[in-house]
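Page 42, continued from yesterday. The earlier attempt failed because a stray header line got pasted into the input along with the sequence. Redoing it now with the clean sequence only.
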Amino acid sequence: MLTLRSTPEKVEPIFEMYRTEQILRESLALTRAVASEISAAVDGSGEIIVTALWPDEAAYQEWIDHPNRGRTAPALTALLADAEIGVGRLYRVDHGVSKNSEPR
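This time it went through. Structure tokens are written below.
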């Protein structure tokens, strides 16, 4: 999970960049990631979280080390110039459920 604290007016441009550059789709295509999402707080604070589900820590490290990961860095850095970027954190999923699958 990665937290970005930006201004409310930058949320949509950040989302647009993620959509246009297909950042989430690329991370799925190039690694063993299972799913990922980008979301904004509905309170208008400008806080964004990026979450991803990886089968293990090594799979996440593959994305961290992948040469394509920094492809959009210059444009994303400009959008996040005044943002507070949190430290990416890994969480171990104990279990989960989905309408479309058996419990994991």
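Notes: Helices lie at 8-20, 23-30, 57-65, 73-79.
Reminder to self: strip header lines before submitting.
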